[in-house]
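sorry for the late reply, my laptop died twice this morning and i had to redo everyting from scratch. anyway the thing you sent over, i finally got around to it. pasting the sequence first so we're on the same page, its 101 residues, then the predicted structure underneath. double check i copied it right bc i was rushing
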Amino acid sequence: MEEIKNSKGRVFVDIPLLFEAQHLNEKYGLEFDEVWLVYVSREKQIARLIKRDKISRGYALEKINSQISVEDKKIMADVIIDNSGSLEETFRQVEEYLKRL
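ok and here's the structure:
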């Protein structure tokens, strides 16, 4: 962890349930300079979850409802990226935020 902290480059870590796992972040001493939230609309999130995990809509809703809401996550995040559009639109947003680093 110290090696990463002392590095000159950028490190991106993909943690889907970062906010829900706050106790683990503290336990392992995880610290982040910025938190980027990539989100989709609730309906798109449900559809993707059903397709990826091959689960029912009801179970997908249970999983989503057990998490912190996207609206609350938006408040906690430093950068917010809307992934509801095309892949190109998402890349454009990421590139814009990367330019400011």
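The longest strand covers residues 36-39.
thats about all i looked at so far, will dig more tmrw
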